[in-house]
Write a structure and sequence with these properties.
heterodimer; A: 418 residues; alpha/beta; Rossmann fold; 3 domains; four-stranded parallel sheet; B: 481 residues; alpha+beta; 15 helices
């Protein structure tokens, strides 16, 4: 029924290598909705951003794309712009993977990325927005069509001159914080200084490669990863970052024990410890070294936290950001879809640049969920989520403040220097 | 570079569908349609020509009228997980994807019924009902599948031991007829109360169990049940089918349990061994569990006493060879806090074997279970497949499930054909023992109808022709039209 065809293998050589895993998808539909059960209550919620935006089952959950790939590999249907659109419409948030109970589970996101690599090879239907920034990354090492020479312009001169050449930590800033959410980058370095963290910033940081990896551009991703590994190693022993996307790339993709099939696409050898700034802050709070003062911008307001997919479902960091928020003089409230059940902000997987309307509408829905629990402030630890939430809030004039936890912490922290 | 988008069907019909539901809810693109050409079973992919996602009844009426004018088949689709190829088009046509019609319209906790649309999932409904202390009968299927589709097609659930199949809970219906009119059935035809089909003529029978071939059920009233606060699961194992069926008969006679089920050793393995392996000699061949619920500890303890009595009677009077076994705690949770992710997961069936799953079965008189099991076991082992059989009593001993979960490798045509052959043989043999297939694929209907009462076939055909004169509703699925 779904044997590999010559035509299918030729068009999709990368997915073909993972065909045995792809075939484990039973078409059962578990991936299409969040669901958990318990004595007191059952939980059911929309999980798939693309299923929620595009109206047909073919966009909902990994079953849909797995089925499409089976059709393409078996030669029953052909690759065209519509097939490419379906394959590129996934934010790679992993919500379907969270629900899957079959042996394709661990492979779902690898398969999606390999499929995109194959679509890229065939030059069919890659969204224009993705094509634009993809061409820019090899030239200027960022997806924002900005100059590489201006990457560090956000750093105040006084601080820039005082950064050591070598330090314990390299602060990996990331493209979004370097060019768009400079507020988060600035807050990070101020916070690290207040905590006496020995850090530096490399002069020649390139894009971490996340947008390239997520859109199946493995050769370009490898080039940027190898560069970063090389320069970071010269300046520090560990990495710290405030970006969930960079964190995932550095901690998971760079170090990945890749499964066969995917290994051919992307593999590097990298073993440097990587931490997120929120982890450093959380440790300091738990040691009693940091407390937070009241500030009218946040104090006694209802604050919720959005689990960014890259740091949450992909890397399992759920509690540290919550513990930090609970230590602040705010009213912490949870959205129904939290932790592993978090709903994507809509920015990941190349969607923000590739399908901007869908991306923003997804962020708007998540903002609505926050407003629905009467939250006044949405927080995250990801500049990319931050950006999508704040843009959606602006576009739809939503009564919701958007902040990175690191910003709030930096503004309100009292460090006990004993 | 851009590849032209491959489309199906006619531009004329597509444009009219677009006018009805809007462009974003309508497609004739091959890549959008392929999803609807398969399911979990061995069915060879068969494509529809269009897919539409209607929002309401008036849109469905317009689509049905268009289908009549153009003689285009219509296939209702919720999630396509019926394990019978029921949503795979036999002759192309329009898929009605109910993703947008997913409203829980009412939960009446006084008269104890709910009204739902086709896109409402078990997950969604169970969460809403649990909030108010109620439940429906949740089946052995993934939670994101349709409760309406399951119910109108005689779906079974965790309360079927107590009340029978889910279709027995139906309290009202709204149906778009194959000719485009809308009809209400039951008390809702006379007032806004959807509490009962009785004591009216049972016109609901024109749409229940017809596999979407006689109309489109757009709203369904279903009785709901208060969740009983106390529950327990009792388990017992047996060396052979004779022993387990005599115990199950003794216990189900009392009609005290919600669920009375046994699974063969092969089905008790996760996943089902594929291909066949021999059972270790010392292991029992059957494992039974029964779920009891009650309003007090006393009630549970009373039921326990009766259960022990029926078990002892089976041992003493029927010479049943029963042995104790401990039901795993996680499985117990899965059986008592439904719908469960464990119970509804295909990992139990198809893990690591290539994605295919189907079954022969289901409703078979309990007294014939031992003979049928012997024959099925031979058939399955001959085809190198595990006899992963499940048996369950519904509404006491009146009828019950007898089916074999059959995994196969969709990558390998030999594997698919072997499984299909085993299942077809099982259906043929099953007929000798009074077995009636459940949500049957067309292949099963063809076997079944060969030996059916001719009056029954005539009546079935006549009703179908009367309701659907242009044969647009899911054509081919009954094996008669």
């Amino acid at each position: 029924m779904f044997s590999l065809s010559e035509k299918g293998v030729k068009k999709f050589p990368n997915v073909a290598k993972m065909f045995d895993w792809l075939s484990m998808c039973t078409y059962c539909s578990n991936c299409g909705q969040f669901y958990e059960y318990g004595k007191e209550r059952n939980f059911a919620a929309v999980n798939c951003p693309s299923g929620d935006y595009f109206k047909f089952s073919v966009y909902n959950g990994s079953r849909s794309r797995n089925t499409l790939l089976k059709g393409l590999l078996s030669g029953r249907i052909s690759l065209d712009d519509e097939a490419a659109k379906i394959l590129f419409s996934c934010t790679l948030c992993g919500a379907c993977q969270q629900m899957c109970e079959t042996d394709v589970k661990d492979w779902i996101l690898y398969i999606e990325e390999a499929a995109r690599a194959d679509v890229q090879r065939n030059s069919v239907g890659v969204p224009e927005g993705i094509q634009t920034w993809s061409k820019h990354i090899p030239l200027e090492h960022n997806p924002y069509i900005e100059k590489h020479s201006e990457r560090l312009n956000w750093i105040p001169k006084s601080i820039r001159s005082s950064l050591p050449k070598k330090a314990e930590y390299v602060y990996f800033v990331g493209c979004t914080a370097s060019y768009r959410q400079k507020n988060i980058a600035l807050a990070t370095i101020e916070l690290l200084r207040k905590l006496n963290v020995d850090f530096t910033i490399v002069q020649d940081e390139w894009c971490c490669g996340s947008p390239l990896l997520r859109t199946g551009q493995f050769d370009r991703a490898k080039e940027t990863a190898l560069h970063n590994i090389n320069v970071i190693g010269k300046h520090g022993d560990k990495i710290i970052t405030t970006c969930a996307g960079c964190y995932r790339s550095l901690e998971k993709d760079y170090k990945k024990e890749s499964p066969e099939g995917y290994k051919d696409l992307f593999e590097t050898s990298f073993d440097m410890p990587v931490i997120h700034t929120i982890e450093v802050l959380d440790k300091a709070v738990k040691k009693g070294e940091v407390t937070f003062r009241e500030d009218p911008r946040w104090a006694h307001k209802r604050v919720t936290y959005h689990d960014s997919c890259h740091i949450g479902r992909h890397c399992g960091i759920y509690e540290q950001p919550r513990d930090v928020l609970r230590a602040m003089p705010i009213i912490f409230v949870e959205m129904e879809r939290n932790r592993q059940w978090s709903f994507c902000c809509g920015a990941g997987g190349g969607i923000r640049g590739g399908m901007p309307e869908y991306s923003l509408e997804t962020a708007m829905k998540r903002n609505q969920e926050a407003i629905g629990i009467k939250a006044e402030i949405m927080t995250s630890v990801c500049p990319f989520c931050y950006r999508n939430f704040s843009d959606a809030a602006k576009k739809w004039d939503m009564p919701l403040g958007v902040w990175d936890i690191i910003e709030i912490a930096n503004e309100t922290m009292i460090v006990d220097k004993r | 570079m851009s590849d032209a988008i491959k489309k199906r069907g006619s531009d004329e019909i597509y444009n009219k569908l677009k006018e009805i539901v809007g462009e974003e809810y309508c497609s004739n693109k091959e890549s959008d349609l392929f999803h609807y050409s398969i399911d979990l079973t061995w069915y060879t992919p068969s494509m529809p020509d269009y897919v539409v996602a209607p929002l309401d009844v008036s849109e469905i009426q317009k689509i049905v009228r268009l289908a009549n004018l153009t003689h285009t088949p219509i296939i209702p689709y919720c999630t396509g997980t019926n394990i019978g190829g029921l949503c795979i088009p036999e002759e192309g046509g329009i898929i009605l994807d109910f993703r947008r019609m997913n409203r829980i319209i009412r939960i009446d906790t006084e008269t104890e019924y709910t009204i739902i649309e086709p896109g409402v999932t078990h997950a969604q409904l169970s969460a809403a009902l649990k909030e108010v202390g109620f439940e429906s009968s949740w089946g052995v299927h993934p939670a994101p599948t349709s409760h309406l589709a399951m119910t109108v097609n005689h779906g079974i659930g965790h309360l079927s031991g107590r009340f029978g199949v889910n279709s027995q809970f139906i309290s009202g219906m709204e149906v778009v007829l194959p000719t485009g009119e809308v009809a209400k059935i039951g008390s809702c035809a006379y007032s806004d109360s959807w509490h009962s089909l009785y004591p009216l003529p049972m016109l609901s029978g024109l749409f229940i169990g017809w596999l979407g071939t006689t109309g489109i059920v757009t709203k369904l009233g279903i009785w709901i049940h208060k969740i009983r606060p106390f529950n327990d699961v009792y388990s017992i194992a047996a060396e052979d089918m004779e022993s387990i069926s005599s115990y199950m008969k003794r216990w189900s006679d009392y009609q005290l349990c919600d669920d009375n089920t046994a699974v063969s050793w092969w089905l008790a393995q996760i996943p089902i061994p594929y291909p066949y392996i021999e059972k270790p000699k010392d292991d029992p061949e059957w494992f039974a569990y029964t779920v009891v619920t009650g309003w007090s500890e006393d009630e549970i303890s009373f039921k326990r006493k009766i259960w022990e009595k029926s078990r002892d009677t089976a041992i003493k009077e029927d010479n049943a060879k029963l042995v104790d076994f401990e039901y795993p705690s996680e499985a117990k949770r899965g059986r008592t806090e439904l719908p469960s992710r464990i119970v509804g997961s295909t990992k139990n069936y198809a893990k690591s074997c290539g994605g295919g799953i189907a079954w022969p079965g289901t409703f078979t008189p309990l007294k014939n279970w031992p003979m049928l099991y012997k024959e099925w076991k031979k058939i399955y082992i001959k085809h190198n497949l595990s006899p992963a059989v499940r048996v369950t009593n519904y509404w006491g001993p009146h009828y019950g499930m007898f089916r074999a979960m059959t995994p196969f490798d969709k990558r390998d045509p030999n594997s698919v054909n072997k499984a299909k052959a085993a299942m077809s043989e099982a259906i043929k043999v099953g007929q000798k023992y009074g077995m009636i297939p459940y949500k049957p694929p067309v292949d099963y209907w063809n076997i079944l109808n060969e030996h059916a009462d001719q009056g029954w076939i005539m009546l079935l055909t006549r009703v179908k022709d009367m309701l659907d004169p242009n044969h647009i509703m899911n054509p081919g699925k009954l094996g008669v039209r």
